[in-house]
Amino acid sequence: MLLDACYILDLHKVPPMYVTQDPQPNAMCIGLDEPIIVVGAGLVELLDEEEMRAVVGHEVGHALSGHSVYRTILLFLTSLALKVAWIPLGNLAIMAIVTALPCSRPVEAGAGTRSRVPEEPPR
User: Are 117 and 57 in contact (CB under 8 A)?
Assistant: First the structure.
């Protein structure tokens, strides 16, 4: 499934994919230098093969577009915001940085467009 998506989307270096023991249905593409695809066990249990193919294609679309850096920075800043919430205006400073990151909706839309491509395996 991952190899099919990478082949169809012409991603030459196949990113590693890991399944976490998280019951929450979630998937993400993270990493600074090299993208990593992470899928929660809750999502794997919830979806059938065709739906999982679309999710993996979506995440490969993020890897291809370099969006993993944005997600990784956002996760770091969210963690940091929790640690500095006690500082007056500390949380506001972090939120200003998060707001300056590329908008999530267009990033998701671009990866979503790519996820529709790998529905057919290569012939």
Answer: yes
- Helix, strand, coil in percent for the chain, rounding step 5: 60, 10, 30
HSE of 5, CA atoms in CB hemisphere, 13 A: 29
Specify the residue for token string 């908008």.
103
Instruction: Give pLDDT tens digits along the chain (123 positions).
Output: 999 999 999 999 999 999 999 999 999 999 988 999 999 999 999 999 999 999 999 999 999 988 888 888 888 887 887 777 777 777 777 777 767 666 555 556 555 555 555 555 554
C-beta of residue 111 within 8 angstroms of C-beta of residue 58: yes
Residue 104 · residue 35 · CB < 8 Å: no
Which residue in 4, 5, 44, 52 sits closest to 25, CA to CA?
44
Relative orientation angle of helices 49-65 and 104-115, to the nearest 10 degrees: 120
